[in-house]
Amino acid sequence: MSAVDVGVALLGYGTVGSSVHRLLVESGDEIERATGHRLRVVRALVRDPSKERAFPAGEGVLTTDFAAIRDDPRVTVVAEVMGGLDPAGTYVRELLRAGKPVVSANKQLVAREGAELFAIASAKGVQLRFEASVCAAIPVVKVLRESLVVSNVHRVLGIVNGTTNFVLSRMERGGTYAEALAEAQALGYAEADPTDDVSGADAAAKMAILATVAFGSRVGLDDVETRGIDEIEPAHVSAAAELGTVVRLVGIATLVDGAVDVRVQPALVDRSHALAAVDGAFNAVMLQGDAIREITLEGPGAGGIETASAVVADLVSVVGTSGTGFLQNDACWRELPRLDPGAWRSPFYVHLEVADRPGVLAHVTSRLAAHDVSVAQLVQHLRDGEATLDLVLHEAAQGAVARAAAEIATFPEVLRRPFLAPVISERPL
Ligand code: NAP
Ligand code: HSE
Known about the structure:
Blueprint: E1 4-11, H1 15-26, H2 28-35, E2 37-45, E3 62-63, H3 66-70, E4 75-80, H4 88-97, E5 102-104, H5 107-124, E6 128-129, H6 140-147, E7 153-159, H7 162-172, H8 177-186, H9 195-198, H10 201-215, E8 224-226, H11 234-242, E9 245-256, E10 259-270, E11 282-289, E12 293-300, H12 304-321, E13 345-355, H13 360-370, E14 375-383, E15 386-397, H14 398-409, E16 419-424
Parallel strand pairs: 1-2, 1-4, 2-3, 4-5, 5-6, 8-10, 10-16
Antiparallel strand pairs: 7-9, 7-11, 9-10, 11-12, 13-15, 13-16, 14-15
Bound molecules: NADP nicotinamide-adenine-dinucleotide phosphate and L-homoserine (HSE).
Residues 136, 161-163, 189-191, 197, 202, 301-302 line the site of L-homoserine.
């Protein structure tokens, strides 16, 4: 088979961009054997061409001039690996309008501006792919869009942020939050601004994309109930261990009676649950649907070369289906209502720090009972006239639990704001 040269341009040549180039060079023979095409990076957009690069870009490849990429007739397909909304969004729109297919690793762009970008791609008949924007190396978008197209997926449960999973795994082994985050940044897992990781914003964008694709209905970032890991303390991690669970930042997207609920929050995951074994910067996504029952995909969820593998897979798919694919079409085909977030049901964990006085426990449990919330498990520790109470509650509506916790927080014997998290377990509580 004789090779056909395909000119590739990269918007961005940082952690991911330089790794895409490395893979295209080092795996060029494998790609050519599989596809008959030789993908060559001919241009890469950067801010500062004089910077030292992890993998050399080659003579004349780096440019600061976007138009030189858009108007270069050698460029057949573009990978957007620069991040941010602007100018990345403007550039992607211009490229699609110019008839150039784009693959993007930018979850914020796809989650916020996907509808408009897909409309342009569809009008121009060019592909827009975004596998690398969710869970790096794990091909979950492809599985949802192509393999499970008739599976009626109604629940997506996932660990979708590598940085926070790395931090929480390290804290379990006794590391501090600050040390673990610094290590994740040094390893290239974290976003340019790691606030997006620890606040849950990165995971929220990924869950918005996954829910949109899984349910065929647009889920915006504002539709995702989001909490990060910045409120997690070593006391929560050790209490979770005592209850036979681990703390993880979990994304949950559910179809409840035709209404959509999407949330990202710290959760206590039972040790026997598949998500509890997801360690370090790994991600996992469980897909539950009518025909498939449950499929779990697990793999590296962050990192340059790991993300680049998904970018390259999308580039290869674009080349292989050029002009004929259905993936330039928006995955949305219906408009489903949002579930009232307070109506979402789960077992919950509550951590309380209280004064060790007679009647405190009764006071707490009677407030829970007033909201029809029942205690399944309780661990108490006493120290210096204070007590920590770690309660696991039977399944209840989130609104009822939150209202009870807010009332309990006002008790004079409650010393600090209660910490609340859902519990994920296959065991009955
Ligand atoms: P990065 O290392 O910061 O690289 C960003 C690149 O884009 C740099 O080469 C930078 O140029 C260039 N760039 C940024 N703004 C620019 C502008 N206004 N004009 C021209 N060039 C610009 O980021 P990254 O970690 O590779 O991430 C890139 C994208 O992949 C992001 O959307 C991120 O969310 C996504 N992603 C990252 C990972 C990961 O593990 N790192 C995983 C999945 C998805 P200079 O080099 O000259 O500064
Ligand atoms: N910062 C992201 C993470 C990179 O830690 O998961 C992958 O999108």
